Amino acid sequence: MWNKNLQKLSEHEKYLVQIKKENIKVHATRVSILIVFFCLWELAANLSWIDPFIASQPTAIFETLVQLSSNGELYRHLLITIGETVVGFMLGTILGTLVAILLWWSPFLSRVLDPYIVVLNSLPKVALGPIIIVWVGAGFAAVITMTLLISGIITIINVYGGFHEVDQEKIILVRSFGATKKQVLQKVILPASFPNIINALKINVGLSWVGVIMGEFLVSKAGLGYLIVYGSQVFKLNLVMTSVLVLAVASVGMYLGVAYLEKKIIRHL
Amino acid sequence: MVSKKILTIRNLTKSYHTISSETLAIKDFSLTLFEGEFIVIVGPSGCGKSTILSILSGLLEPSSGEIIYHSQANSLTIGYMLQNDHLFPWRTILKNAILGLEIQGRATQDNIDKVKRQLEMYGLGKFINSYPNQLSGGMRQRAALIRTLAINPDIFLLDEPFSALDYQTRLAVSEDIVSILKKEKKTVIMITHDLNEAISMASKVIVISKRPGKIIDAHEIQLSSEGESMLDKRKAPEFMDYYNQIWKELDVHVE
């Protein structure tokens, strides 16, 4: 009996070791790809296979990064962009959810507005950029408006769609208790749609970055998007590449933040 | 024993409308319900059984006919149980059980304590703060029953409450639920298409025709069984007679 247990355990242990090995292999390969990529890039630039003036190179990017962070410029631009993203992201999610609730509340309104939402959703929002600049001015407000347009519409569509996926019988149940429309919303629709809303958050993080960078390309005088555009205009490719890398890190960080929130909040669903 | 009339349904008729057609779901359905009765309605699928319960629970307006409540306020508290337990996964068992009270603005400490006692009495005391996914199917069904009991309904409406369970669980759970309902002396209208279930639970079985649903017959069930459990009742000598007669009335054909 004891012997059998031991065998079982060791087989399970073998299995665990196998999994661990597999994981290490995946991680190691991931890191190697990154290292090889940067090494090749550096090598290619040094050996003049590529023109570092156009393609930049890792050491130059690193120097730019050090320089930008020592004079504080990096943090200023980064904070502005992150600030715009967070504000746009929150506004898009909150306003989008509110509109979705309104549409759920009034099926008449929902039917009336349906074609407008379809058009707004299919329209590439960047085309509205010039109009936004004329209307709200070139600056912070324009960036936020752009972000709001991009993430808001998607939120409306996703959250409203989620409202309709809620089990009809759950609604019948609370209505049999005599629930008012407001109670149906409070007790069933909103809590049941919570995973959907969190999912919308995840999509919105990405979309907000798109909106902010697009907005900054068009109008701004600060932010990572501005750095990228400015860098390309004055042919400082080192600055462009550095900004792109910083942007990648910041956006992944924010995405992971929301994913962590999701895990924290939704444990029983 | 002469019991009190609590509900009269007279000539209830209901049609459903779609753009292309009108469907008559039930026609001239009349029924008098006495306190403490356990009425089971059987009928072929799509005969409008659920429509009757939906109307009684106030979810649907009848096309014509009337419902008279023999109470002072001319209304009754109705408890409606559906096929699935529909416990909300984001609420604990206690929170689920007080959902109806909460909606009706009656979630006082007194009432909540009462629900807690009921949960304890029916073996869910340990799970008050658990979430539904931590409970077995039978326990979930019990919690759903207590959720309905909590609002202290005058009439219980059960719409095939066990049909989502597998056969063995179903036997145990229906026994369980029925014994609780009888213990609490509740008046019940239940829908099922399981004749065994119907005859062993009911004080009266009502047979309804194919759509548009009309009452074909009503059987007062008198079983001379020794025990009170549903299994005992199935052994009663009259059981098969009821079964055969209702089966014939249902007139089931495979077309």
Give a verbal description of the structure.
The complex is a heterodimer of chains A (269) and B (255). With 269 residues, chain A is an all-alpha fold. Chain A has helices at 2-46, 52-55, 58-70, 73-105, 107-122, 129-136, 140-165, 168-176, 181-218, 224-233, 237-265. Chain A is built from eleven helices and no strands. The mean pLDDT of chain A is 89. With 255 residues, chain B is α/β, with parallel strands linked by helices. Chain B is built from nine helices and nine strands. In chain B, the strands form two sheets. Chain B has a six-stranded mixed sheet with strand order 5-6-7-3-8-9, sandwiched between helices. In chain B, α6 links the parallel β6 (155-159) and β7. The longest helix of chain B has 17 residues, at 167-183. The radius of gyration of chain B is 19 Å and the shape is globular. Classes of the chains: A mainly alpha (269), B alpha/beta (255). Chains A and B meet through α8 and α9 of A and β5 and α3 of B.
- Gyration radius of chain A, in Å: 25 Å
Count of domains of chain A: 2
Strand content of chain A: under 5%
Give the end-to-end Cα distance of chain B, rounded to a whole number of Å.
45 Å
Radius of gyration of chain B: 19 Å
Strand tally of chain A is 0
CATH architectural group of the largest domain in chain A = Orthogonal Bundle
Q: Going by CATH, what is the homologous superfamily of the largest domain in chain A?
A: MetI-like
> What is the count of helical runs of chain B?
9
Work out the number of β strands of chain B: 9
| Assigned CATH class of the largest domain in chain A | Mainly Alpha
Which pair of protein chains has the largest interface, and what are the residue counts?
A-B, 19 and 21 residues
Order of helices and strands of chain B: EEEHEEHHHHEHEHEEHH
Question: How would you classify the quaternary structure?
Answer: heterodimer
Sheet-strand content of chain B, in percent, reads 15-25%
Low-confidence stretches of chain A: none
Shape of chain B: globular
Q: What is the level 1 CATH name of the domain at 1-75 and 189-255 in chain B?
A: Alpha Beta
